[in-house]
Specification:
The structure holds 2 protein chains of 2 kinds. In chain A, 18% of the residues lie in helices and 27% in strands. Chain A is an alpha+beta fold. In chain A, the strands form 4 sheets. In chain A, strands 8-1-9 form a 3-stranded antiparallel sheet. A two-stranded antiparallel sheet of chain A has the order 2-3. A two-stranded antiparallel sheet of chain A has the order 4-5. In chain A, a hairpin with a 2-residue loop joins strand 2 and strand 3. Chain A is globular, with a radius of gyration of 16 Å. The two termini of chain A are 13 Å apart. In chain A, 41% of the residues are buried. By secondary structure, chain B is α/β, with parallel strands linked by helices. In chain B, the strands form 6 sheets. Chain B has a 7-stranded mixed sheet with strand order 5-4-15-14-13-6-7, covered by helices on one side. Chain B has a 6-stranded mixed barrel with strand order 20-24-21-23-22-25. In chain B, strands 10-9-8-12 form a 4-stranded parallel sheet, with helices on both faces. Classes of the chains: A alpha+beta, B alpha/beta. Chains A and B meet through helix 1, strand 2 and strand 3 of A and strand 3, helix 6 and helix 24 of B.
Chain lengths: 157, 701
């Protein structure tokens, strides 16, 4: 079964904890932001204003265009659903950065390799949730769980 | 690899942490899921702590400045130099010529106060003081008989209705409140938000009251008017447990929602709806933020909020505003005795600047000097000169109102000590710099901020980097060198903490093992022992305040610089300016040097309504020149529908650490260049008008 990750729009407060949790977990320098919080609004709706926050992250696509774009065939989809980069094979040509239609493939200037969310593969192996999910103060991110009813959910992965 | 349990001290709530250490170096800082309050949630600041501790610009050794050049020196020379200067100024100008300035309370301000008393100076201040916490705390003291946290505690877990005024508990406040507020909303509790900005909290509100900044006092009075006129108050609580209700009923008669609409810009119907919701959908919790402390009517506004809680009857009840005992009841660092006030003789206490006028600031509870009076003593040497500043974890050039004036004052001082992590804009002007240990490098105890519910051990997880020292050790060693060592008689920090814990019958080692001592939570304590006021009841009408010459019932005061009180100024400066909006990424003046945080929010912005921006030819991202009567700054425009077209909001207290200590671009980026510490001041606390000032905008280039 493929992994799923949702954000509950009623609980995401736009605090950026997920971004920094990810940075620390993967020891990322300034530059790659595997998860990034977006502000949507305030915008006018009937009777007032609406303001939402939600993170964007690699969707772990069914048919990843980044993989197709990679001349080294360094990107593959694993059986568990996550899309991973073989860093040994990656030459840092950035074709995948161009290839991702969502702009969610990053480049790590320090390692000079492509860089993307791996859903905290290391933590998953230890039976832990991804760090963005685990440390979210609003408990807004829902990983691998039944979709709670009556929630404003947005599918991220 | 060990994961050590401690608590975060990046701000005040002391959220539980698990810190992984390898070969004496911090590898990871993560939340502690077993922590009673934070329950495994955390904020981005804590997760980035590693980048503070191992920051390449952190100063790791004592330094002295000679002819404008910094030289590395040893601790002995540094401490001797500071001690010589303390003794010199005491001798030449009296102990009152030395100012002890410190930053916000973490778990060290008790030590700063003890040290000021050890030095013998009555003059101590922080940027908060009259502008943060004390107006709310002391209003509770005079209404309910004791200092409770800010304005009570907030039982979001059990509440049915939340009234949040001048604060955003999804950004500020305790970590635990974030999910508690969201949970409450999701189980159907009502939310009323009073805020000039459409924040992430306002976006979740049932009722958003977009108030004109600085007029919360008028709104609170009209809430009371509605509750009393419509009979929506808790009659039995009022009859049994309060005095002065008949006087209040007469007093608030004129303060109708229609009266308040003209002042607050909030529709009368909306005011009525909010008052009814708060009064009838309970149990309700009222949460009053720092915004109202930063006004020249801070005390009466807080009194109004306190009395509103009494009217609702949700006093010390589940789901309302419980009166958890203030931290001082359980935290030995916050007790009056720990601070050694007796070291200042009565005669010298009278010299505390501003204390004779602003009795509730200068008195024994807050025991602080009036900030504008301190600047005057430095600049004009009246009524006597202040010559030296001992600055502990504070950055006045960024944090105090009216930066240009603060800068003039700092330049006139003859001696400055700065104890900090970095060469901040203020530290650059010091004569001696002492490198402080961060909270992960020092042992300590703390309370869940202000809540007398638990006492926590905050063990250090690594030895201080470089030659940095625990602040407590700095205080001890300095005290010895000025001949006052007997008041800091401990050989080590551990020995000292053991001593603090002795009355509780435990050692620091035992507390570390336990992680925390929990104290029982009780509701309706007043039913057993009454309130600790003179009357034993909630004092709606305060004879004590009346005796001191302050209003016994809360009043409204129009902000002294406003479209209505100074229309002539408003002609030139037509927009209302606020600078108080917080972010989850930074605390006060700090953390702009942390790469992981800075990458997300790289520069300060000014929030402007698109209509107002258009009128000035300003587009999203344009540089905007913002001017007040005090000065001007340049910030990038962030166009948002979430602000009234007549109001703008600047992100506050920005400087650019990466530009080096010589850089002065903070004179263009720090919103406090615009703010004011001019009179009039709050009659009781001396608070100045830090928010809701007047300004104008134009294109910045």
């Amino acid at each position: 079964m493929a992994y799923s990750l949702f954000v509950d729009l009623d609980r995401c407060i736009g605090c950026y904890t997920c971004e920094v949790a990810c940075k620390q977990e993967h020891d990322l320098p300034v530059g790659p932001r595997w998860i990034r919080v977006t502000r949507d609004g305030p915008r006018e709706i009937p009777g007032g204003l609406q303001l939402d926050f939600y993170p964007k992250m690699c969707k772990q696509c069914e048919n990843p265009e980044c993989a197709e774009a990679c001349p080294e065939k360094a990107i593959s989809k694993r059986s568990d659903g996550s899309v991973v980069i073989d860093l040994e094979a990656c030459t840092g040509c950035k074709a995948c950065v161009e290839g991702c239609p969502f702009g969610l493939m990053d480049f790590n200037q320090k390692t000079e390799k492509a860089s993307k969310c791996d859903l905290c593969a290391g933590r998953l192996e230890e039976g832990l949730e991804p760090s963005c999910v685990a440390f979210c103060p609003g408990k807004a991110l829902v990983f691998q769980k039944e979709m709670p009813e009556n929630r404003r959910l947005m599918k991220l992965v | 690899m060990d994961a050590i349990k401690t608590a975060c001290c990046f701000c005040k709530p002391f959220c539980g942490l698990l810190v992984s250490v390898e070969n004496g170096k911090i590898v990871k800082v993560e939340p502690d899921p077993e922590d009673r309050m934070s329950q495994g949630a955390i904020c981005p600041k804590a997760l980035a702590s590693k980048q503070l501790i191992y920051h390449p610009d952190r100063v790791l050794h004592p330094m002295k400045k000679d002819d404008g050049t910094w030289t590395k020196i040893g601790w002995d020379e540094a401490l001797d130099t500071v001690a010589e200067n303390i003794l010199k100024f005491k001798q030449s100008y009296g102990p009152e010529s030395i100012l002890v300035a410190h930053g916000t309370e973490r778990n060290l301000s008790g030590y700063a106060e003890r040290f000021a008393n050890t030095v013998g100076t009555p003059n101590r201040m922080e940027p908060g003081g009259a502008q943060c916490y004390w107006p709310r705390g002391i209003a509770c003291k005079y209404t309910f008989g004791e200092m409770v946290y800010y304005l009570f505690e907030f039982d979001y877990t059990n509440t049915n209705c939340m009234l949040v005024i001048g604060m955003n508990n999804l950004i500020a406040g305790h970590q635990a409140y974030r999910s508690a507020v969201l949970d409450a909303k999701q189980r159907g509790a009502k939310l009323i938000v009073v805020d000039p900005r459409f924040t992430n909290l306002a976006a979740r509100a049932d009722l958003w009251l977009q108030i004109r900044p600085g007029t919360d006092d008028a709104l609170l009075l009209s809430f009371m008017n509605v509750m009393i006129e419509e009979g929506l108050y808790d009659r039995s609580f009022i009859d049994t447990w309060t005095i002065g209700f008949p006087e209040l009923r007469e007093h608030v008669k004129p303060f109708t929602p229609e009266w308040a609409e003209k002042i607050t810009w909030i529709k009368a119907d909306l005011i009525r709806a909010a008052a009814r919701m708060y009064a009838t959908q309970g149990p309700s919790v009222l949460d009053l933020g720092v915004a109202t402390d930063q006004s020249p009517n801070s005390f009466q506004t807080a009194r109004a909020a306190a009395i509103l809680v009494a009217l609702s009857g949700y006093v010390d009840v589940p789901g309302g505003n419980p009166m958890y005992r203030r931290a001082a009841y359980t935290d030995p660092l916050l007790t009056h005795d720990f601070k050694l006030p007796e070291l200042i003789p009565e005669e010298r206490l009278k010299k505390r600047l501003g204390a004779d006028t602003y009795k509730l600031l200068g008195g024994p509870i807050a025991a602080m000097s009036h900030v504008p009076a301190v600047w005057k003593a430095i600049l004009e040497e009246k009524p006597y000169p202040i010559k030296a500043m001992l600055a502990f974890w504070t950055n006045p050039l960024i944090s105090y109102a009216n930066t240009n004036k603060v800068y003039r004052a700092l330049k006139k001082l003859e001696f400055i000590l700065s104890v900090d992590f970095f060469l901040t804009p203020t530290a650059r002007h010091a004569d001696i710099f002492l490198p402080a240990a961060t909270f992960l490098e020092r042992d300590g105890i703390a309370n869940y901020y202000g809540q007398g519910l638990a006492l926590l051990a905050m063990p250090k997880v690594i030895e201080p980097v470089g030659e940095c020292w625990d602040d407590k050790k700095i205080f001890m060693e300095l005290s010895k060198r000025i001949g006052m060592g007997k008041y800091w008689p401990w050989e080590s920090v551990e020995e000292h903490i053991d001593g603090l814990l002795q009355p509780m019958g435990i050692t620091y080692g035992q507390l570390k093992d336990m992680k925390q001592v929990l104290f029982p939570r009780e509701y309706r304590k007043y039913e057993k022992s009454g309130f600790k006021t003179a009357s034993g009841k909630v004092e709606i009408y305060s004879r004590e305040l009346e005796k001191m010459g302050y209003e016994p019932l809360p009043v409204y005061r129009e902000p002294p610089e406003s479209p209505y009180s100074t229309p002539e100024v408003a002609q030139e400066f037509p927009l209302v300016l606020i600078t108080g909006g917080r972010t989850s990424l930074y605390n006060h003046t700090e953390m702009r040097m942390i790469p992981w945080l800075r990458e997300i929010q790289s520069e300060p912005v000014v929030e402007i309504h698109p209509k107002t921006a258009r009128a000035h030819g300003i587009d999203q991202g344009d540089l905007v020149k913002i001017e007040s009567r005090r000065g001007r700054v340049f910030l990038k425009a962030d166009l948002t529908l979430g602000i009234d077209p007549r109001v703008i909001s600047c992100k506050s207290r920005w400087w650019y650490p990466e530009r080096g200590p010589e850089d002065e671009s903070w004179l263009d980026s720090n919103s406090n260049v615009l703010t004011s510490d001019d009179p009039p001041y709050d009659p009781a606390l001396g608070s100045y008008q830090l928010r809701a000032l007047l300004c104008r905008i134009g294109k910045g280039d």
